[in-house]
Design brief:
20% helix; 1 helix; 40 residues; two-stranded antiparallel sheet; alpha+beta
């Protein structure tokens, strides 16, 4: 996991070993402060 910030804006890069399903994306997206999710 990598976390970078500049002022009040930050981003995290999370390397998940395995499938990323809609349920996991929904759980991450429901966290307070999460503005966007991108799955590569």
């Amino acid at each position: 996991m990598i976390n970078k910030s500049k002022g009040s804006i930050a981003y995290n890069i999370i390397d998940i070993d395995g499938d990323v399903n809609e349920g996991l994306i929904g759980k991450i997206g429901s966290l307070e402060g999460v503005l966007a999710i991108r799955v590569l």
